[in-house]
């Protein structure tokens, strides 16, 4: 074969790549001829002059779509190799194999133009360094992109037309299978139909998606998933899988096409674009499209019930006596009242009784505890308790027996389902075992597959038995005649049952929250209006008069504690003499001079007495002389060469205090030095060390610099002698070049030292100095 004139010697010096791609795994499995045609390009490239050892086959993108930018690993690796100037030619069957999106194609063109890479499309060679050839190649690639978009658009239109004709273009959900004519029918497997019917029955009974999920997980009942290779898959129930049944109108016989539309994927992402909901006027809705699992009217009622199950965040029940804790809400600020137990009293039996109140604290989250309004919990609880006892009707004994029988029937149904499932798994294991032993041993691959099938069947039987053993079914409790008679007596007296000794506050609160959603409390002219919102939706309005507060009894105030003036004079003289507070307290206690409120004096009481003396609050007693200003002492000690910690120790020894008569801290010493414009000796010593390092680093090694600093009497900031490691770290921090010699064995002999910079020593750019 004649070599095209575009292929030059510098192209042959680099490698050639045959790029192979198919758009989906299904095409890889079914269309094997397409991959074979693309692999035949190796012979053509070899005929152009590349040896076989210089030709690479890039087939890592088989089964990956070319419509998403940056989602193909082998294509990205190809671009990197082109950037490294390793490739001279890329061979493809047609432009659609290279890219079906503009960003990937432009990236390839840019790399090919910069590095002189040829593109072989069939028999045509495209040289992107040549203007005419690059123009022709770009037109062919852009046309492939246009054809891909046109194909997708026509495919969407064809699917919509098919839906308008009454034929579902999408795959059926769990519980349905497609006939050859395109219609949907219920799954022929009885177990799948029974479980889906049970799901909708539990929706009507429990009324909550999470309760149904909890029921299926508690009883270890698995739910079906979509069939794969004509075999249904079973999995444990989750909230998402249960919601797929409860919120999908397909199970009510309605088919909807066009509810969502796929957006273009994010550039560089391997995932598909998100599904975005579309307006209802663009949907294709077909009523009575197939046989439903649930009546449409019943399904609509379930959707309304699910919508009403909104999440109301309420506080915990608590162990207190507040009956409607977390249910009382303020319509003005639209938030729940807080419950506080502000007062306590002791009952006749010695028990501590707490008196709760409900308060509206609108700005509590901002730290403001001022209340907008408040009401005693006893007033509201009494009204709600009376309302509940008047509203609730006792349950008939016949209803209890009917509920027990229903639970028994459900228990028997679940038990039969488990037995059927176990028998079905055992039958599959027996069939797999028979097929394995009857197979011809000469067919090694067939025997291996049958053995794997037998192992899977036996493992399935063991897994079912283990699951049933770990999650046994709990048989319902069947009450006898004596228990039913006792229940009848309790139900005839609801107030007595409400106040039964075995009924706790938590039980009453749980019952209230089961029947009441919220209580909206409004205060107008000393009248509380309670709008009780029941769980079913209706409301009851109650007016409650605000109780007048009982006038408080007058409180007899005790006279202030009196300390003798002579005691204050003694404290003043001791303070003037510089005696510390602890010594003054010991002297007063030794002289048996008691304190007015306590038997002995303490250091804290001496400090308070000295504060009153300095402020002149003791009539007839002159205040002590003012405390010396510690600023002068700090300046004097700093000029004497003391560090801040030493200055603090000396000030504390001399009894110096700040203006508030408190102990001086090292932070105060630092602040005073900064205010005076003085630098600490630690900082001055560090500057001196930095100056010596800058002078010694160009001519001395770190070990010699450490010896010199120790000879000069300089220490590290921790007060330790300098070492080679300390000097090297300090030079790196200051970004000072130094002479560095790596440790070597003695046998290798000396090698000349070299001067390195911090960048060479670290292997990268040094950290920026703060």
DSSP E strands, number: 23
Q: How much helical structure, as a percent, in the residues?
A: 40-55%
Which structural class do the helices and strands define? alpha+beta
Distance between the termini: 67 Å
Q: In percent, how much strand structure appears in the residues? A: 5-15%
Q: What is the arithmetic mean of pLDDT?
A: 79
Spatially, the strands of the biggest sheet line up as 2-1-3-4-5
Biggest sheet layout = 5 strands, mixed
Total helical elements: 28
C-alpha Rg (nearest Å)? 44 Å
Report the principal-axis shape: flat
Question: Low-confidence runs (pLDDT<50, min 5 residues)?
Answer: 554-560, 753-770
How would you describe what is shown here?
The protein has 770 residues and is α+β, with helices and mostly antiparallel strands. Helix content is 46%, strand content 14%. The chain has a 5-stranded mixed β-sheet with strand order 2-1-3-4-5, sandwiched between helices. Helix 14 packs antiparallel against helix 15 (444-470). The longest helix has 42 residues, at 397-438. It starts with 8 loop residues before the first helix and ends in an 8-residue tail after the last helix. The model is unreliable at 554-560 and 753-770 (pLDDT under 50).
List keywords for this structure.
28 helices, 770 residues, 5-stranded mixed beta sheet, single chain, alpha+beta, flat, disordered C terminus
């Amino acid at each position: 074969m004649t070599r095209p004139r575009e292929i030059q010697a510098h192209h042959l010096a680099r490698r050639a790549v045959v790029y192979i791609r198919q758009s989906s795994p299904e095409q890889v499995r079914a269309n094997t001829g397409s991959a074979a045609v693309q692999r035949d390009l190796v012979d053509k490239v070899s005929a152009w002059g590349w040896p076989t050892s210089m030709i690479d086959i890039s087939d890592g993108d088989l089964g990956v779509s070319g419509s998403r930018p940056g989602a193909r690993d082998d294509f990205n690796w190809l671009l990197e190799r082109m950037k490294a100037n390793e490739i001279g030619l890329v061979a493809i069957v047609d432009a659609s194999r290279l890219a079906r999106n503009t960003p990937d194609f432009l990236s390839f063109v840019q790399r090919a133009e910069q590095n002189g890479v040829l593109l072989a499309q069939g028999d045509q060679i495209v040289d992107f360094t040549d203007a005419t050839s690059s123009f022709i190649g770009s037109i062919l690639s852009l046309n492939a992109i246009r054809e891909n978009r046109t194909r997708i658009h026509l495919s969407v239109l064809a699917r919509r037309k098919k839906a308008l004709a009454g034929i579902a273009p999408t795959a059926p959900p769990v519980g349905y299978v497609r006939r050859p004519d395109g219609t949907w029918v219920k799954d022929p497997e009885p177990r799948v139909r029974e479980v889906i019917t049970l799901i909708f029955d539990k929706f009507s009974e429990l009324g909550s998606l999470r309760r149904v999920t909890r029921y299926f997980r508690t009883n270890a009942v698995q739910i079906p998933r979509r069939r794969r290779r004509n075999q249904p898959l079973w999995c444990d129930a989750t909230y998402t899988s249960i919601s797929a049944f409860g919120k999908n109108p397909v199970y009510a016989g309605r088919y909807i096409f066009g509810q969502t539309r796929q957006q273009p994927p994010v550039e560089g992402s391997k995932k598909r674009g998100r599904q975005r909901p579309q307006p209802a006027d663009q949907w294709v809705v077909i009523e009575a499209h197939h046989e439903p699992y649930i009546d449409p009217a019943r399904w609509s009622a379930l959707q309304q019930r699910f919508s009403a199950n909104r999440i109301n965040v309420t506080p915990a029940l608590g162990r207190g006596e507040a009956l409607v804790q977390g249910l009382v809400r303020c319509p003005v600020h639209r938030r729940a009242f807080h419950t506080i137990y502000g007062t306590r009293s002791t009952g006749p039996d010695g028990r501590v009784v707490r008196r709760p109140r409900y308060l509206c604290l609108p700005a509590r989250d901002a730290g403001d505890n001022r209340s907008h309004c408040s009401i005693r919990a006893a007033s509201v609880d009494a009204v709600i308790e009376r309302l509940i006892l008047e509203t609730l009707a006792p349950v008939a004994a016949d209803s209890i027996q009917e509920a027990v029988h229903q639970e028994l029937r459900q228990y028997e149904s679940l038990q039969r389902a488990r037995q059927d499932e176990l028998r079905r798994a055992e039958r599959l294991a027996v069939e797999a075992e028979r097929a394995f032993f009857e197979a011809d041993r000469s067919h090694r691959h067939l025997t291996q597959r049958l053995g794997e099938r037998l192992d899977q069947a036996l493992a399935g039987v063991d897994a079912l038995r283990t699951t049933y053993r770990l999650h046994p079914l709990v048989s319902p409790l069947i009450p006898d005649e004596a228990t039913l008679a006792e229940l009848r007596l309790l139900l005839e007296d609801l107030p007595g049952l409400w106040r039964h000794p075995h009924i706790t506050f938590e039980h009453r609160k749980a019952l209230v929250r089961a029947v009441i959603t919220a209580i909206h409390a409004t205060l107008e002219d000393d009248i509380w209006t309670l709008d009780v919102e029941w769980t079913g939706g209706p409301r009851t309005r109650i007016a409650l008069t605000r109780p007048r507060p009982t006038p408080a009894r007058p409180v007899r105030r005790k006279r202030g504690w009196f300390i003798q003036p002579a005691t204050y004079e003694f404290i003043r003289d001791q303070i003037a003499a510089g005696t510390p507070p602890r010594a003054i307290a010991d002297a007063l206690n030794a002289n048996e001079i008691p304190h007015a409120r306590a038997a002995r004096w303490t250091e804290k009481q001496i400090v308070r007495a000295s504060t009153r003396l300095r402020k002149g609050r003791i009539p007839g007693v002159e205040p002590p002389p003012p405390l010396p200003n510690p600023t002068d002492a700090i300046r004097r000690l700093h000029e004497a060469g003391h560090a801040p910690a030493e200055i603090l120790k000396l000030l504390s020894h001399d009894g110096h205090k700040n203006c508030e008569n408190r102990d001086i801290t090292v932070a105060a010493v630092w602040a005073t030095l900064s205010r005076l414009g003085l630098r600490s000796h630690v900082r001055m010593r560090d500057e001196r060390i930095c100056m010596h390092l800058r002078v010694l680093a160009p001519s001395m090694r770190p070990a010699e610099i450490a010896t010199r600093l120790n000879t000069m009497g300089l220490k590290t900031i921790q007060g330790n002698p300098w070492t080679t490691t300390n000097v090297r770290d300090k030079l790196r921090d200051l970004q000072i070049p130094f002479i560095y010699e790596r440790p070597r064995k003695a046998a290798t002999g000396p090698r000349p030292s070299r001067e390195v910079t911090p960048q060479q020593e670290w292997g990268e750019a040094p950290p920026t100095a703060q």
